[in-house]
Amino acid sequence: MSTANSPEAYPAPPALTPPPDARPPVRHPDAPAPGELLGSHYDHCFGCGVGQPHGLHLQARAGDGVSITAEFTVKPAHQGAPGLAHGGVLATALDETLGSLNWLLRVIAVTGRLETDFLRPVPVDTVLFLRAEVTAVAGRKIFSTAVGRIGGPDGPVAVRARGLFIEVKVEHFIDNGRPEEIRSVMSDPDQIRRVRAFEVNP
Q1: In this structure, how many other beta carbons lie within 10 angstroms of the beta carbon of residue 65?
Q2: Which CA distances in Å does 32 have to 147, 172, 201?
Q3: Model pTM greater than 0.85?
Q4: What band does 47 get if pLDDT is binned at 50, 70 and 90?
Q5: CB 155, CB 123: distance < 8 Å
Q6: Contacts of 197 (CB under 8 A, 6+ apart)
Q7: What percent of the chain has pLDDT over 70?
Q8: CB 101 within 8 A of CB 136
């Protein structure tokens, strides 16, 4: 049963509503095991990259089914109003968390649409706990939801989002990214890291 704090408690707009022929998501047999840390998909990603000094350094773990959990600590560099997280940073955390779901499907996908609700302010030094899940798949379209809670997995809901991701081929990034970064990624001898670098919208 849905509650006021669950993503199912608010209706999705038409663009984020799965079509009648959508199917339930299926976790890929080679997806990381529940509880496994997903790690950074790209060192310079603002959302999860360890090479970004002012990034979110968001850490995500595989959950059950097609779900993940993630968390990040709001730092002074992330504030908008004095002492409070910038709304764009919170939207980035949701986008990063939703995008990481694609690793469980083992597809490359980019953000097509993201709708975010900001329900309460998030102070600097707060740990934001996020949970996301894929709700449906229709062709190349992947529908998902996420909720961010303050202070713990059972804390008050601060943000929530619905996302639509579109499955793409690696050529999407090769054709549109800066050549020097693309060359650097493609020359990585670690095939898994090379694939993961393209797993979410950069």
Answers
A1: 14
A2: 21, 25, 20
A3: no
A4: confident
A5: no
A6: 41, 42, 185, 188
A7: 77
A8: no
